[in-house]
Structure formats: C-alpha cells, structure tokens
Inverse folding.
C-alpha cells in the first residue's frame, strides 16, 4: 500500500493508462492528495484525489484508474 509520506510535492500523477492526471501540490492528512491548480489539466483549481487510488510510487505517482475516470471523479478543493 502507498504511504502518504512517499508522495512529494511536484511529483507527476499518472492514470493507469499512463496519461497525465496532474501534479502533486501536497498531501492532506493520511488519505488525500491535492493537485496543483497551475497544472494544465486542473482548469485553474486544486483537485483532491483519495490516496487509496495510488497503485505505486516511484519518481511519479501511478493510479489504479485511467486518467479520464480519475478526472471525472476528483473533487474540487475548498
């Protein structure tokens, strides 16, 4: 299982299809990843995805769902 402390600021986040989802801004608590609002995919807003979607971490964060599905399900950060 992925650990929140292994995810670092500015890491690229990829869907299971290898497509770009966003860039890590920060990790909130032990269960949420906040993506930067400056990323082209973000539409100028921070988005939150659950840590449980993370499949693996190397120099990038790899998710267990395709990018399109993640972007349909992500939440806009308050």
């Amino acid at each position: 299982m992925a650990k929140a402390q292994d995810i670092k600021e500015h890491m690229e986040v990829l869907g299971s299809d290898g497509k770009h989802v966003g860039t890590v801004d920060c990790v909130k608590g032990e269960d949420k990843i906040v993506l930067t609002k400056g990323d082209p995919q973000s539409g100028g807003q921070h988005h939150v995805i659950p840590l449980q979607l993370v499949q693996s971490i190397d120099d990038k964060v790899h998710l267990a769902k395709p990018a399109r599905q993640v972007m349909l399900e992500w939440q806009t950060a308050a």
